[in-house]
Amino acid sequence: MTILLTNDDGVNSSGIMAAKNAAENLGETIIVAPATQQSGIGHALTLFEPVRVTSTNMSDGTEAHMVSGTPTDAVIIGIFQIAKKKPDLVISGINIGENLGKSELTTSGTIGAAMEAAVHGVPALSVSLQVTRGDIKFHDGHVDIDFSHAEAMTERVARMILEKGLPNGVDFLNLNIPSNPQSDRIRLTRLGERMYSIHIKERMDPRGRPYYWIDGDSVEDDQKGTDVHTLKRENCATLTPISMDATSSLDLMDEWLEL
Description:
about 260 residues
């Protein structure tokens, strides 16, 4: 079995080392990840400049491949250039900070990498660990976090994917793990509405011109059965099956267009 590991926090993140620890007993691991922090980049692809790949060593001496572009670039380079054959699984993470709800599906680089793997027919798992300290969510490099529970849950789900494959109609799985779980239970959930409520901070530069920070307040609850509610209110790990077919009802459109 060959497992491609990537992330959006950068190749030097503690989270990708934790993913390696989770996957190393499951097969051969190949690490291909962005050179720098890429949170919020979503499913972006580099098309107007070259993507460069540099070999590097992680903190334990493991070889890794550092990509100058996005998590999506890393997956493409990993599958079609570095791996000798198409991998059996792609694990994206372990992200520092949860990725919940419909909005993160398109903005998260962690999920974007898993989505790219699914595009190419490779089963994928995106993994995120809830954190309570906002200052470490976008840190570029090592952070002092206990990943032991997240590693165990990642290995458990990854092993099931390798042994069973994904069910028909499921292209990848999104796993979110509480920062301090009370058990090792993983609950199947649907996507919540959103993880953040957006607000804009306007400031003035020294020349009197306005500039803006896009910011947001964390949404702390949603309907029961959603990933937001289950993680934040029930303190339980969530596993959400995702399909790449986002087509809405054609029958409704026929009626709307009066065809």
